[in-house]
Structures are given as structure tokens and as C-alpha cells.
Design goal:
7-stranded parallel beta sheet, globular, alpha/beta, 29% helix, binds zinc ion
């Protein structure tokens, strides 16, 4: 009797054996329903064998084989790779490849691939774009990794589509990953205009279950020519895969931070290699990992140094003192004058500060008390809409105090600058202007962000205020001024990627200015204008910054010159965290050969979050294989350790040590 190895979505280290009733047609990749203990679970068959792996155990039968496409071989292998590489429970990794099951009944009504009938003339490629496309299509039918390093507005989407045309002409499918759900409608609309008739399916978590299932089925049948989606789309079934594109490849949201901690860009590279197809990574500010890989010749870098629209110049960048702007709710003289000029010219301005809320703290002027979260080692953010104190780490909300809880003083001061304060200051400074704010608090509704975008396009907004949600991919022809506030905060960060992230964010935000014929201007309020990140911004020279940051990383033996993993632990009692990490440290030292460095356990940067004390231990090695061998052995010992009061995780290639 055949035995199926079934991967189930539980944190177990193995797959489970079930016997297959003869009535069920079953193969590797089949999606099945089984009982595990008292639970009914959906799993995927990873192998079919003749005999059970453990003798004399009464096996349960497979209850049902679901009527969905089998999980493809390369997706199964991708899941196995992710489980092994990221040291995750295999069942949880395989679950990422299981098709969306709910909403099966509504699938017929959901429109499968997006109907594309808004015809417009496709853009002609310029010389730089044509050369990039030519280089990529030369690798048609074979694995190669390209890094398209193109300044903002250089027309990377046209390069992706130009390369994709070669795949489409061959009847192949293209997978395009984007970092944010918010970007997909605009991108689909642009693709729709450029390639009328192309069959596109979108996959992201905000879709209704029926829509997601329909898109998945369209990908699995080969009907969808272009599958466009966020992180999870890297697991989409693509029987005719011919090309993968990862847009904004530097974006941190490609790294999943919980459950299975995989990096979708790196998973995509693995999949392209496995399928023998080219992969294109695109960014105006490539990650240092990718930049380094290109330096080493593992990726081919293609530079696009100028904007696609010959009328569009890169914006002119100037600096003004942040300190001098303090008495003005953040808006200095230079920025104020520049906004007034835009209003007079009926052009649009964007003012960026990467902090939502009114002010990042509330302090007592008399006794220096400050509002702290009771559950986290962090300050509470003052909000005015609605009035409250909020923790941005755990979501805790409390009323704004009317007097200092410590000394009774009524003079409480919101300190620092958030989007709400900036919005209020702009309203006061420019009474007639139409001002809109975009941050996570303002865009709760599904369509709120789209509404603001439409209003910007219709020129119903004069000044847009917001966080990094505004940084990416949006293209507004009459937006000619960008103000960047509060950037200096990032310079104090303990995160080793802080400068890289700051530079990327600023170049992206600045890139919103002057996309069409009107010249763009960027005003940065900083007290550190000679910092390399600001110098790079002013010179539009990311390359020099990337090279100098890589020198620093090399000197400090940080990624990408070393490969790292973080053991993170949390518990209600600090002593439990310390005991677990101390035991983990002893185990690591015993296992580590001389190729693996084991650091001492330390408190996390955010030492307490949502009532949990947090600590961590970093291990690293210059040799990937040595680290992988070490991690596998170490994880086995960690799993065997007592410590039920401790929640822990291993994060391979962590986004940061924090
Ligand atoms: Zn006080
Ligand atoms: Zn909190």
C-alpha cells in the first residue's frame, strides 16, 4: 500500500506518513486533507513511498485529495530549499506553495486575468533602455542575474517589459515581484497601456480569496502571461516560466520578518537558477548585497544614469539647517519660500518626514518625565487625530494626559516632528492650499491611498505630506518640489544598514520631483550636510556611496562580507531569556568550528516589546557552507533545550541586528 509523506503547516521538523486509499489518485505535489491528532489539516504530498518510515505504527489514511492543481516540482524544491537555508520547519515552508483554498465557489465569478483593453501607443525605448533589453534577452533560455541600476525616472518598467516581450513571443510566462501592494494597481495600469491584450494576473495578500485563487489558477494553467505580485508570488505555479523580474530589489519588505523568514528576492534568484531562466533585479538604489555580487561578477550590472524623458532632469538638491527650523514646527525659511513659489505656479509639493503621529514623544518641561509604553522599552508617540498616546511597537493606546503624572505640571511638551504636526504647520502657513496627509493612520480604507493618488493626478492637491509610503513608484508630472525633514534621526541609529536605508529612501523620495518637463527641486533640512548619504543625494551619485559603504562593511566584517544569523529570544522574565541564550551560547561555542564566530548574548535594541523581554545572539562566518552546517547542528540542540517559557527564532541573513 502506498505511503504519502505529507508536509503539514505545523512547526514540526519532519513530514508525516499517511496511507493512501486506492480510490484516491495521488502523486508528489498533491494537496490533501488529513487528520493530525484532533485537527483537520491541509498539506502537500512531498513524496510517495512503498513502506512507512517507522515500522509497527498504525498510520491514518489520507482523507481527501483536493481539486486544485498539484504543487509543481520546482515550487516543492523551492520550499525545501527555504526550509533548509533559513532553518525553518519544513511544513511551514511547504505551506507557502499551497494554492489559496478558500473562496473556491466565488472563483468562477472573480475575473481571472485582468482584462486588458485600454489601448495606448507603447513607449519607444531610448538607446540606454534598448541596450539593457538587448543584454538581458541575450540570456533568454538560460540562468543569468542582471542588476539594472537605473536612476529614478530612467524607465526601468519599459526595460522589464522589453525583456518580457522576448519571453511572451516564445509563449513563456513572466513573474514580476513588487515590494508593495499599493504599487500594483498603478503598475498594472501602466502595463495595460503599454501592452494591450497582455493577460496579467496579480497576486497579493489584499486580494479577496476568490480573486487570489483565480489568479493562482490562471498562473497554473499558463493562461496568465504576466504574474505580478508581492513577496508570496515567488511561490506561484509557472509552468512556462521564461523570466523573473524583481522591482525595487533593495526593498526591505522582500524579507519576511515572521513565520518563515525568507527573502523573496533571494528565493526568486534560486528559482530562476533552478528553472534556467534569466532574472532581472531593478533599483535606483541597489542593495549592497546585490552591488557586491555585481562587483564580484556574479551579477551583471547595467547602469542607466539618466532619465528616460529627455526633458526630465534629475532634481536640484539644496540643504538648509534643521536647527534653524525648530521654532517653526519644522518648516524652515527655504522650504516655506519654495512651497509658496510652487503654489503661485500651480505646481505640487511633497513634504516627507518618516514619522507618523504628531510628535515622537511627550515630555514634562518641569521634571523631565516622558511618556513611556508600559509594555515596551520605548516612548509613546503623541497623536492629535484622534488625541492619544500610541505605541508604534505594540499598538498600545492611552489617553493624552492633561498634567504630568509625576509632578502635576500641566505644561506637557510634544517633542519632535511627525506627519500630523507637519500637516498642521502647513495648514497654518498656507491657509488656502489643499493639503493631504498620507501615512499608515490616514490610509486605513482599502481605497484611501488610491483616492489621494487620483487627487494628485487631477491636481486637486497642492501639498502632500507623508511617510515613506510616498517614496516609491508614484509619478506625478506637476510635482516639482520635495522637502525632506527629520532625516538626521537615522544617522543616530545603531542599525548597520541605517545609512544604506537612509540614502535609498532619500534618493527614492527625491526622485519624485521633476519627472516630466518641469525642473525639480529637493530641499533637505539637515545639520549634517557633509554626511556621505547627503553628499550622494546632492550629486545623484549612489555608486560612490555604495562603494564607500562596502569598504566600511568590509573593514567591520559585516554583511555582505560575512554571512550572519541571529538567534532571537523573548520571554516575560528577563532571567528566562538570559538563561536560554546562555545555554544557546555554550552550545554554539561547542559546535562552532574555527570558521564560525559566535558573539555573546546581548539585549535587543528594543529590550522589551509588548510585555516580552528580548535578547539575541549573533553568529557569523565568511563561509556560507560552514555557517549552514553549523546552523543545522545548532538548531537541533536549541530545539532539544528546555525552555517552554521562551519564544525563540533563528533569522538567517537578518535585515538587521536588532
Ligand atoms: Zn513633571
Ligand atoms: Zn508598546
Amino acid at each position: 500500500m502506498p505511503i504519502a509523506h505529507v508536509a503539514l503547516p505545523v512547526a514540526a521538523e519532519t513530514t508525516f506518513d499517511y496511507w493512501c486509499p486506492e480510490s484516491l489518485a495521488l502523486a508528489r505535489g498533491s494537496v490533501v486533507r488529513v487528520r493530525l491528532g484532533t485537527r483537520n489539516l491541509v498539506g502537500v504530498v512531498t513524496a510517495v513511498a512503498d513502506t512507512p518510515r517507522i515500522a509497527d505504527v498504525k498510520l491514518a489514511p489520507i482523507a481527501d485529495v483536493l481539486d486544485v492543481p498539484r504543487v509543481a516540482d520546482d515550487v516543492l524544491e523551492l520550499a525545501a530549499f527555504i526550509a533548509a537555508y533559513y532553518e525553518e520547519a519544513p511544513g511551514l515552508a511547504y505551506a507557502l506553495g499551497v494554492p489559496p483554498l478558500t473562496g473556491a465557489r466565488s472563483a468562477a465569478r472573480a475575473k481571472a486575468p485582468v482584462d486588458l483593453d485600454a489601448p495606448q501607443v507603447a513607449h519607444e525605448l531610448n538607446a540606454a533602455q534598448s541596450a539593457a533589453v538587448a543584454a538581458i534577452v541575450q540570456s533568454h533560455g538560460q540562468f543569468a542575474t542582471f542588476l539594472v541600476n537605473g536612476v529614478t525616472g530612467s524607465g526601468k518598467t519599459e526595460i522589464y517589459l522589453g525583456a518580457a516581450d522576448r519571453a511572451f513571443a516564445d509563449g513563456k510566462q513572466v513573474l514580476m515581484l513588487v515590494p508593495e501592494i499599493n504599487l500594483t494597481p498603478q503598475l498594472v495600469a501602466r502595463i495595460r497601456a503599454a501592452r494591450p491584450g497582455l493577460r496579467v494576473a496579480t497576486l497579493h495578500s489584499a486580494l479577496a480569496a476568490g480573486e487570489r485563487r483565480a489568479a493562482w489558477m490562471a498562473a497554473a494553467s499558463g493562461e496568465a502571461q504576466l504574474v505580478l505580485g508581492t513577496r508570496l508570488a515567488v511561490f506561484a505555479p509557472l509552468p512556462q516560466l521564461g523570466l523573473i523580474v524583481v522591482d525595487e530589489e533593495h526593498d526591505a519588505s522582500y524579507k519576511q520578518q515572521d513565520n518563515v523568514r525568507y527573502h523573496a528576492r533571494d528565493a526568486a534568484i534560486w528559482r530562476a537558477h533552478r528553472r534556467g531562466v534569466p532574472i532581472v533585479l531593478g533599483s535606483a538604489t541597489p542593495s549592497l548585497e546585490s552591488w557586491h555580487a555585481a562587483n564580484e561578477g556574479r551579477y551583471r550590472r547595467i547602469d542607466i544614469p539618466s532619465r528616460a524623458d529627455p526633458r526630465a532632469q534629475l532634481p536640484h538638491v539644496t540643504f538648509s539647517s534643521h536647527r534653524a527650523a525648530r521654532g517653526t514646527d519644522g518648516i524652515g525659511e527655504a522650504l516655506r519660500a519654495a512651497i509658496a513659489l510652487r503654489l503661485a505656479r500651480r505646481e505640487q509639493s511633497l513634504v516627507f518626514v518618516n514619522r507618523r503621529g504628531f510628535a515622537p514623544s511627550l515630555i514634562c518641561a518641569a521634571c523631565k518625565w516622558d511618556a513611556q509604553c508600559t509594555r515596551c522599552s520605548a516612548r509613546l508617540t503623541t497623536h492629535r487625530v484622534p488625541p492619544s498616546l500610541r505605541c508604534h511597537h505594540c499598538g498600545h493606546v492611552e489617553a493624552l494626559p492633561t498634567a504630568c503624572p509625576s509632578c502635576g505640571n500641566v505644561d506637557l511638551v510634544p517633542l519632535g516632528l511627525g506627519t500630523q504636526r507637519l500637516e498642521r504647520a502647513l495648514v497654518a502657513a498656507f491657509p488656502g492650499a489643499r493639503i493631504a496627509r498620507v501615512d499608515r493612520d490616514s490610509t486605513h480604507g482599502k481605497h484611501a491611498f488610491a483616492t489621494v493618488r487620483d487627487q494628485m493626478e487631477a491636481q486637486e492637491i497642492d501639498i502632500l505630506v507623508g511617510t515613506q509610503m510616498l517614496a516609491k513608484g508614484h509619478d506625478f508630472p506637476r510635482l516639482t518640489l520635495v522637502g525632506i525633514l527629520g532625516a538626521d534621526n537615522a544617522l543616530y541609529s545603531a542599525d548597520f544598514r541605517a545609512t544604506e536605508r537612509l540614502a535609498a529612501l532619500m534618493l527614492q523620495v527625491a526622485g519624485r520631483a521633476g519627472r516630466a518637463g518641469l525642473p525639480g527641486e529637493v530641499i533637505v533640512q539637515t545639520d549634517f550636510a557633509d554626511h556621505p548619504a547627503f553628499v550622494a543625494l546632492a550629486a545623484h551619485d549612489y555608486a560612490t556611496l555604495a562603494e564607500s559603504l562596502l569598504e566600511e562593511r568590509k573593514a567591520a566584517q559585516l554583511p555582505p562580507f560575512t554571512h550572519a544569523a541571529v538567534l532571537a529570544a523573548e520571554a516575560h522574565q528577563r532571567s528566562d531569556v538570559d538563561a536560554f541564550l546562555a545555554a544557546g551560547h555554550v552550545s554554539a561555542l561547542a559546535l562552532a568550528a574555527d570558521q564560525v564566530d559566535v558573539f555573546s548574548p546581548v539585549s535587543a535594541l528594543l529590550a522589551r516589546r509588548a510585555g516580552f523581554e528580548r535578547g539575541q545572539l549573533v553568529v557569523q562566518s565568511e563561509r556560507r557552507a560552514a555557517l549552514q552546517r553549523f546552523l543545522a547542528a545548532w538548531r537541533a540542540e536549541l530545539l532539544a533545550m528546555p525552555g517552554r517559557r521562551v519564544r525563540w527564532s533563528l533569522d538567517v541573513d537578518p535585515a538587521g541586528f536588532g
